[in-house]
Amino acid sequence: MRQDLEIADIVRRFGTEYIEKHHPSAEKIKIRFDILQCRTLTLGGHEERCDCCNQVRYSYNSCGNRHCPKCLSAKQAIWIEKLIDQTLPVKHYHIIFTVPHELNPICLFDKGMYYKLLFSAVWRTLHSFGYTHYGVESGAVCVLHSWGQNLSLHPHIHCIVPAAGYSLKGGWKRIGTYDNYLYPVHQLSATFKGKFLDSLKRALRKKEIGPEFGFLTQQAWNKPWVVFCEPSLAKSGHVIRYLGQYTHRVAISNDRILRMSKTHVTFIAKDYRDRAQKKPVTMTGVEFLHRFCLHILPKRFVKIRRFGIYNHTTKRNMELQFKQKESIIEEGGHGGKKETSQEQIKRLTGFDIGLCPKCKKGRMLFVRELPRIRSPCRPLRQLIHTLLQ
Asked: Could you tell me the pLDDT band of residue 332, with boundaries at 50, 70 and 90?
């Protein structure tokens, strides 16, 4: 039987034991602290009252941390709509670049360096293929993911690439003729492998730690690399919405957590070795938090990046113009007034946050603000221990 659980419940139960065993950094402790406080009275909020049935509702503020599973759904819907407005009205291909697990120790040694080189190798590969195969400046929107279904470390990048580019002659040109694929995947895999390992070895030598990881890079070189590319059979909006499922996500969502005992946590994961069947996975609570921490990104690291003709600087320098959709406006007696944030969320998600949850007729009106609870000024580590006890 599934329990109504959240990641915050797991942090609350196993957080102290995890800190004592793994001694995480202050940044990781702060993220767990944010998850504990998210949408609680600690962060403040506001009181609302229905103008029809007088039902009272208290809405608490979100922590806004990008690793919190509660804070991303509305941002995801808005991002998808904005991206659709800023892309070319052509087919888009979904390409996934992965790296062998033998390189995971290097990733754990310096995530910022590793992910930066991964983005660079992905784009340099796509960029070179755009010129060599079609003679165009291509583009891509790339999203970093670092996890597998069982929360293991599995860095990979999802890309959407348009079936068009800006040619050397100064005009738009459609691309993608390889049996419904954008580029030959075997050539793509070999080129990506060479570019990423070359840049990784250079970075390690610059840090004077090349020999320590030389055996791992050689192991990775001896393995076949696979770049996965799906044939584009849908309109650009469909592909972008599909990619949108991967953008504003954390390693695991609350609805995948099934049970929590005094020592273990059970969650649902897809087994891709068995036709993507959903199966329960059980591990200790401390191990669960440890794996969750593997996917915390370095501070200020950008996980969604645009390249080529989709990069704002490139578009400006090349003076490229995309046909933009007009801003959404509200019609019918409001004089062309732009929609509010509540109206935008309702249109994109179908959820009306201003509707009374009890009578389903009235509107929730603001009554008063609930102030944020100010915690005493103590070291964050000591504060976390106090909250978890």
From this structure: very low
Q: Where are the beta strands (DSSP E) in 44-138?
A: 45-50, 56-60, 92-98, 136-137
Which helix (DSSP H) or strand (DSSP E) does residue 271 occupy?
strand 264-271
For the CA atoms of 40, 45, 50, 55, what is the dihedral angle to 10 degrees? 30
Return d(Cα 268, Cα 259) in angstroms, integer.
Answer: 10
Strand order in 304-308's β-sheet? 227-230, 92-98, 153-162, 139-147, 304-308
Model's pTM, two decimal places?
0.85
Q: Which two structure tokens, joined as six digits, stand for 62?
A: 């979100």
Q: What is the pLDDT of residues 14-69, one digit of tens each?
A: 998 999 899 888 888 888 888 988 888 888 999 999 999 999 999 899 888 888 88
- Is residue 327 exposed (0-12), middle (13-18) or buried (19+ Cβ within 10 Å)? exposed
Q: What is the number of other CB atoms lying within 10 angstroms of the CB of residue 333?
A: 6
Residues 6+ apart with CB under 8 A from 200: 103, 106, 114, 117, 217
- Across 279-318, b (16+ Cβ under 10 Å) vs e yields eebebebbbbbbbbbbbbbeeeeebebbbbbbbeebbeee
Q: Residue 79: which of 244, 302, 297 has the closest Cα?
A: 244
Structure tokens at 261: 């005992």
Band (pLDDT 50/70/90 cuts) for residue 330 is very low
Query: What are 306's strand-pairing partners?
Result: 141
CA dihedral sign of residues 97, 225, 267, 12: negative
Cβ atoms within 10 Å, residue 60: 16
> Alpha helices, DSSP H only, in 181-322?
185-206, 210-222, 236-244, 285-293, 312-318
By percentage, how much of the chain surpasses pLDDT 90?
44
> Which residues does residue 172 pair with via DSSP β-bridges, in sequence order?
166
Question: With contact defined as beta carbons under 8 Å apart, do 291 and 149 qualify?
Answer: no
pLDDT digit string, tens, across residues 359-386:
988 999 999 998 887 654 454 555 555 5
Cα–Cα distance list, 175 to 51, 111, 307 (Å) = 56, 34, 17
Residue 36 and residue 38: Cα distance in Å, rounded? Answer: 6
Q: How far apart are CA 288 and CA 335, in angstroms?
A: 53
